[in-house]
Design a protein that fits this description.
With about 300 residues, this protein is of the alpha/beta class. Helix content is about 40%, strand content about 20%. Helix 10 packs across helix 11.
Length: about 300
């Protein structure tokens, strides 16, 4: 199935992800407002770079950009592109909603305006920051300052614990900026992050998977995957985490509920308070007496109500 994305699709994704409302042009209304000496609140360009620039200004104003610049990796020996630039490139990938790394050259790296925000000039966008590996490329035409694999190879060199602390510190900055309401309802959710078998610190889990064989018959096989699990405590309705933790992929979310609530309280400080939490009462919770007792203890310790929900 062809799921390639177009320029129009990623531009639409960016506008939606940055929550910008649509606008219309009315030169006569603008002229009348200026004629009666009405002050202009702000002037925004209607191109995509204007939206990105305003987003990065937001990061700077909330002290988040400073945290991005502090990220580092001891594993990167020869620095031609900084860790900050790699992180910002990946931010743009997420904002644009680009699904595949292989699409970055066509959809992002070729955009001179977006690349200029990262710190690359026009020559680097057209010819690359170096000529390493050019002779080995089957397609001699190169698009962008780096290749997608370079971005992927260097991002994974940032330590897992450092990234976890980075995200929790960003949440603290958002809480300080009054991003969250005074009272919060939260829910816990886990997402697998699969890696190669030999990735440092990765765990493994074997699961059953239903597949269709060559004869069209459905059968169940066992599949082992390696990696980590990102466990997040989300503010319901906002789709913004108030605390995260990264563990090995085989670990269960319910084992880290108490620690996540504690981290969330530290992140939110006095700016917001967790009022209640949605808990999925699985068999694991119901039949694990220790785990169930811990949930009851957390109700008293953290002063929040737990509500059951089914999926």
């Amino acid at each position: 199935m062809d799921d390639r994305q177009s320029k129009e699709e990623i531009q639409h994704n960016m506008v939606n992800n940055l929550y910008w409302k649509s606008c219309s042009r009315d030169d006569q209304a603008a002229a009348r407002a200026l004629y009666i000496d009405r002050k202009i609140d702000a002037i925004y360009g209607l191109e995509e770079t204007g939206l990105l620039d305003d987003f990065f200004h937001f990061l700077q104003s909330k002290d988040i950009w400073f945290k991005v610049e502090k990220l580092n990796s001891r594993e990167i020996k020869r620095v031609m592109v900084t860790i900050t630039q790699y992180v910002v490139l990946y931010m743009e990938k997420v904002i644009y909603g680009i699904k595949h790394m292989d699409s970055l050259e066509e959809l992002l790296f070729s955009d001179q305006s977006a690349m200029r925000l990262v710190g690359f000039n026009a020559h680097q966008v057209k010819y690359g920051i170096c000529k390493r590996g050019v002779s080995r490329r089957k397609n001699k035409d190169r698009i962008g300052p780096i290749i997608p694999q370079t971005l992927a190879n260097n991002l994974v060199k940032i330590a897992v614990r450092q990234m976890q602390n980075f995200f929790n510190n960003c949440i603290k900055s958002l809480a300080k900026a009054k991003t969250f309401p005074r009272k919060l309802r939260v829910v816990i959710d886990g997402t697998d992050i699969e890696t190669k078998k030999d990735f440092p610190g990765a765990g493994s889990v074997t699961r059953e998977k239903t597949v269709v064989d060559k004869r069209g018959k459905i059968k169940t096989i066992e599949v082992t995957v390696w990696g980590f699990k990102l466990i997040a405590l989300f503010a319901v309705g906002l789709r913004i985490p108030v605390a995260i933790k990264v563990v090995q992929i085989q670990r269960l979310e319910s084992k880290f509920t108490q620690g996540l609530i504690k981290t969330a309280k530290e992140n939110l400080a006095h700016h917001s308070k967790i009022q209640d939490m949605l808990i999925r009462l699985t068999q694991e919770v119901l039949f694990d007496r220790v785990l169930f007792d811990n949930l009851i203890a957390m109700m008293a310790k953290f002063g929040c109500v737990f509500r059951n929900f089914m999926t």
